[in-house]
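tool_call predict_complex ligand=calcium ion
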Amino acid sequence: MTLRTVENLQDAKAKSGEARRNRWWADGPWTLASVLFLSACAAPPTPSDALGLTFTRIPAGEFIMGSDETAHTLRADFPFDDPKRYADLADEAPRHRVRITRDFEMARHEVTVGQFRAFVQASGHVPESIADGTGGFGYNAAFAQDVNRTGDAFEGRDPQYSWQWPGFVQGDDHPVTNVTWRDAVAMARWLSAREGRTYRLPTEAEWEYACRAGQSTRFQTGDDPRALTGAANLFDQDAAAHWPKWKQEALAGRDGFAFTAPVGRFAPNAFGLFDMHGNVWEWTSDWYGEDWYARSPTDDPQGPATGDVRVRRGGSWHTWPLYARCAYRNINTEATRYPLVGFRLVRELR
Ligand SMILES: [Ca+2]
Ligand SMILES: [Ca+2]
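tool_result ok
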C-alpha cells in the first residue's frame, strides 16, 4: 500500500479508501478452534472520573490477531468489482498469536462531545483544528450529493468545521469527531495528571483484543455482514441517502442514524464495550507498519518504533461493512481531523 499522508486522502481511505481500509475476508467461519484463552465475561463498570468516563476491566489473555482471508472468500460476502479492495487487506496477515499479559481497563464508550468539551474547558487545551487555524472537515449536502466527485466525502479543511461542528448536529452524548491524534493524547495526559492514574490510547493489539472479546469472527455479531444491521451504527440506507453514489456499498437495512449516534445505543460486546464497530473510528497509540504482523512480538506488541501514520480502528457511521471488521486496519497522520474519527481511552491498573 502506498501511504497517502495528505489529508484529503484520509477519507479517500475512508470512502474510496474506506473501501481500501475495508479489508476483509469472507471465508466463512474459520476454524480457529483455540483462538482465545480468555474468559469473555463482561466485568462490571469501574468508578468514573472527573470527565465521567466509565471503564470496564479487560482480562489478560491470548488471541489470534489479524486476518488472512482470501479475495475469493471475501468477495462472496463483500462483492466489489475492484480487486484492489481485497489486495489492500494484505496488512492484516499473517494471523499471529498475541498475548496481553496484564489486565487493563478500557472505556466502555467513545469519548463524547460533552466529555471533550469538559476537558477543553478545564485544561485550556486548544484543539489542533483551531490552533493551526485550518479547521476540520464537515458534511455539506451539495458536496456530498456530487456523484461525480470520487474522492472525499466531506468538505475541508475549512475553519467553519471543528470538533464543535462537523456539519451535522450532535448532542453532548455523541462521540466527538474532528479530533487529531495529538488532541486525544493531550486529553489522556491531562486526565492522567488529574486522576493520578495512567490514561492513554489503546495499542492496536489491545484494541483488537478488546473488540474480539473472545470471538474469532469478523464482527461481534459473527461473520455475516447482514447481521450488523441494528447492531452497530454504520453506513446504512439512511446514510446512503446523503451519499447516493455509495448506496450499493451500504448496509441493506437501517440502523436509525444517518450520522453519529449517541454512544451506547447498540448492544455491547462480551467485554461490555459499546460501539467497537462503527459510530467513530478510534485512534490507537501505534505507528502503522504494513508488514508489522510478520515481525511483531507476541507479548504486548506496541507497533513499530517509528512511522508516518497512526492506526485507527473499528469503522465509523460512514463505513461499509468490509471495513468495520475487527481485523481491519486504517491509518491517518497525527494531524488528521475528520468527521469520522474519534477515540476511546484505556486506563492502566494501579
Ligand atoms: Ca448509520
Ligand atoms: Ca467506534
